[in-house]
Amino acid sequence: xxxxxxxxxxxxxxxxxxxxxxxxxxxxxxxxxxxxxxxxxxxxxxxxxxxxxxxxxxxxxxxxxxxxxxxxxxxxxxxxxxxxxxxxxxxxxxxxxxxxxxxxxxxxxxxxxxxxxxxxxxxxxxxxxxxxxxxxxxxxxxxxxxxxxxxxxxxxxxxxxxxxxxxxxxxxxxxxxxxxxxxxxxxxxxxxxxxxxxxxxxxxxxxxxxxxxxxxxxxxxxxxxxxxxxxxxxxxxxxxxxxxxxxxxxxxxxxxxxxxxxxxxxxxxxxxxxxxx
Length: 277
Ligand code: ADP
Ligand code: MG
Known about the structure:
Residues 252-277 are annotated as: Disordered. GO terms for molecular function: ATP binding. Residues 101-236 form the AAA+ ATPase domain. This protein is an alpha/beta fold. It has two domains: 3-60, no CATH class; 74-234, 3-Layer(aba) Sandwich (Rossmann fold), CATH 3.40.50. The chain has helices at residues 3-15, 19-35, 39-66, 87-94, 97-100, 115-128, 138-150, 154-163, 179-192, 209-213, 216-227, 240-264, and strands spanning 105-108, 133-137, 166-172, 197-202, 231-234. The chain has a five-stranded parallel sheet. Strand 3 (166-172), helix 9 (179-192) and strand 4 form a beta-alpha-beta unit. It is globular, with a radius of gyration of 28 Å.
């Protein structure tokens, strides 16, 4: 292709916003020339590059917009460390079918059991499947809602929260809300009922949710909606960190006991076995 042709082709691709094709054009043309590639293959290659680049950009945007506190992908979650987890249900969640069906997911269990990790990993899977995802702590969301109401901006915020395909609410129950906060959170959740998925992590059992929301009738209405066709995962196992530190201590302990055994065998460091003996 001559200089003028290349110039026009680049300009056209730019106009059509095919930026990856613009970027890769010259290299791909050169490779095509060198390998004797036909025009059909060349076009397939270039369009593939554009599609791959758009998918990567979309994923980056979805992840950025989700505001995950840490990026903890599925691969970093050690399933063998939690044999009590219903693996079949967890694997099913990784397919994001529950988002298509507008079902909710609730993780209940004590601190350190991996609830936030699992919610983040599933949130990342949702992003990969191009679902609009938002991760927020319950406390953070309630504060945001209260501020928006003070700024007369509540309707806009409620609308934004209703548009996410998956809303992850982390740490329900860590901090109780004011009556106003509880009502606002109720509004967000009620708005999404059967329209979008909510994933909640909580250290409290359902029976204790009234403590957080204050109002018994409101809690009952909320639970009724949230748990309807929901996937509930009870994380009733020991804290991962605790298991880890116990395991560390056990392995350190065995090292200590090994080194303790040495002096008994006459090989201690304070009385080394002399090579000259
Ligand atoms: P929770 O939200 O239940 O309090 P976290 O998700 O914050 O617990 O987990 C506590 C720590 O332990 C985090 O650093 C998390 O990445 C890690 N963790 C928990 N469970 C696992 C697991 N099964 N595999 C790998 N890391 C885990
Ligand atoms: Mg957590």
